[in-house]
Amino acid sequence: MYYIRSESSFDSAHFLKGYAGKCSNLHGHRWRVVVELQAEELIGEGQMRGMVLDFGDLKKFLGGMCDNLDHCLICEEGSLRQKTIEALKEEEFRIVEVPFRPTAENFARYFYEETKAAGFPVHRVEVYETPTNYAAYE
Question: How many domains does the chain divide into?
Answer without folding.
Answer: 1
